[in-house]
Amino acid sequence: MPHRNKRLFFALRPDPQVRGQLVQLQRDYNQPGANVHRAENLHMTLAFLGMVDQRRYETICHMASRLKESGFRLRLDHTGYWRRPKILWCAPSHTPQPLASLVTHLWDGLESCGFEPEQRAYKPHVTLMRKAATVRQQQLKSEIIWPVSHFELMWSHNKDGALHYESLNRWPLVGSK
Ligand code: 3AM
Average pLDDT for residues 154-169, to the nearest whole number? Predict the structure, then answer.
């Protein structure tokens, strides 16, 4: 990674099959004027870090490489809407214990690296689009089953006027299902 500060976050990224299902969902909710996430940007945020310099980046990677967390399956079964940021999202009704454990242990590690703990309760979701019109919470006709076998450290930046989420590093989860 070049030596300049970067805006980083930990995330889960869907495999091509799950990504395709999420893209289909975006099409189902097609809305003029909404800012639809590009397929390669679809993700589930685990922890948002903000701006990080090179030295801290290395410390964070070391911390992440020491985690021994289990793989799991996410069942994305409903969509919903947050009014203030106008975000349409897709989410699991149930947070698998290994996901809760991964997020908790990531934040434990981040705190030991000097980050301020996240104040808001963790709400797993995949943002489908921003600037969306109001949508009622809705069960999906068919659930999206997402096998999660690794997590990634992402760099959020603008390139040629478009938002890019670029993976800088990834780590496996143990005994992934
Ligand atoms: O995964 P989503 O799309 O919901 O909203 C930002 C995005 O979330 C969130 O981090 C993800 C990758 O950019 N984000 C941006 N700024 C943030 C902040 N200051 C933030 N989350 C918490 N605090």
Answer: 94
